[in-house]
Specification:
The structure is a homodimer of 150-residue chains.
Chain A (H helix, E strand, L loop, with lengths): L7 H7 L1 H20 L6 H12 L3 E2 H8 L3 H13 L3 E5 L7 E5 L1 H5 L1 H15 L5 H20 L1
Antiparallel strand pairs in A: 1-3, 2-3
Helix pairs in contact in A: 2-7, 4-5
Chain A binds a DNA duplex (30 and 30 nucleotides) through helix 2, helix 3 and helix 5.
DNA sequence: AGCACTTGCATAGCGCGCTATGCAAGTTCA
DNA sequence: TGAACTTGCATAGCGCGCTATGCAAGTGCT
């Protein structure tokens, strides 16, 4: 089904891709402002979300669960190591692999960083009630799943 | 209202910011694949959407309507000039300003690029019916508006 | 054992966001 | 008119996505 637009501005106001990009930029920026005082960047926060669940993971395991490319993860981990958030230890089993371990500094950040992220979500979703929020998240998950297939 | 999560994975599956970022990345990547054959990048496409409506605009006018920073626009326009999509002419009225004009090459791309964007949207929204799509776009607009205020 | 294949990671190079900075040109106002 | 301010744009430098490439280490097969 082909939707016809009266003009380009119609497209911008209705294109899911355009809106998604704009929305993600605002989320990114808002989170960045909130966690910058912790010495944290948004991409690092995403990795920490995974590592707070349990560290001592290889880069490959992190790539699998975050759905980013291996090269992206390698660079993000390098910045996190530089910033004292993680250490990369040699694996005893596999000399190619490097085990990612959280520093105490990174562990201590958890509550503050989570609170910052929650605050940003709260601002973004201010005009949606609980039912709408659930529906919104569900729709995003469905859109993500559709693009991962197609 | 503070939502409590059982674990980090709950957060990832429910955080609007996390989902928005993931969704936008998939949109970006999908569009990139589709318009790459035209010699076009996603950021350039966004600018073209505006210029197809009417060119002979200054950089400042483009910045205002696309909601990106001036420096971002300057760099994107430089790449577009390099790629033969636009020319930057001196303004007769204001010697600081540069008027952005589309090349014929950029004008000719319009239909193909729009079709590519539509196709990407269609894949993404495949599992949503017309009513859900309208609701989804409406929710994104509300979330964007909320973050622009807060 | 030795060859091919796969896997884990690093690096180069680019797009496209951002902040910070600087300069030239325009504007305002005493 | 001249000084102070504002505006339009460029540039440097960084985060974080991507593709492409390469290498060392592991695996499998004959």
């Amino acid at each position: 089904m082909q939707v016809l637009y009266r003009c380009m501005d119609d497209f911008r106001q209705n294109s899911a891709g355009y809106l998604a990009n704009h929305m993600a930029r605002l989320f990114f920026h808002g989170l960045q402002q909130r966690i910058a005082p912790l010495g944290l960047a948004p991409g690092q926060f995403m990795v920490l979300l995974d590592l707070w669940e349990g560290d001592r993971k290889t880069q490959a395991q992190l790539v699998a669960s975050l759905d980013v490319e291996q090269a992206t993860m390698a660079n993000t981990l390098s910045r996190m190591e530089r910033d004292g958030l993680i250490e990369r230890h040699a694996s005893p089993r596999d000399k190619r692999a490097r085990i990612v371990v959280l520093t105490q500094k990174a562990r201590d950040m958890r509550d503050d960083a989570m609170a910052a992220a929650q605050a940003q979500n709260e601002v973004a979703l201010a005009s949606l009630d609980a039912q709408e929020r659930a529906l919104f998240a569900d729709m995003m998950r469905r859109v993500i799943a559709a693009m991962q297939r197609g």
